[in-house]
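Hi everyone,

Forwarding the result from last night's run.
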Amino acid sequence: MPNYDPDNEALYSLLDKAIDTAMIQQKFLFNMKKYLEDHSYTRKQTKELLESSVMNEVVTNTGDLNGYLDGDKQCKEAYGHLKKVQVVKIRNYLAKITTDVHEYYAHRKPGRPKGSKNKRKKASK
């Protein structure tokens, strides 16, 4: 398998477990931004994560929870066992995971960051 990346596979398992823990136990233990930074994820790995089925599941669940809050009948039936306060917390948690991945991906652009060359010190003038 040329596209197999064990780091991504481990992250997919963790992310899947984090979704289950958030939905069932209402515990929000996983910090996506910290995980990506601590494991020095590359832009390529992050793009693969964005295109993965696990990330698609996070986006779908976020949309379903939004539907529940907006009064969608089918979503209310699926998530009726949860209180609205819990649904808002879970939705915000899943949205933060998605946002963290997109921000990290944007931050990992190749090349030098803007403004990092020829910085002048104001104190030296």
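Helices lie at 6-25, 32-38, 43-50, 53-70, 73-78, 84-107.

Cheers,
N.
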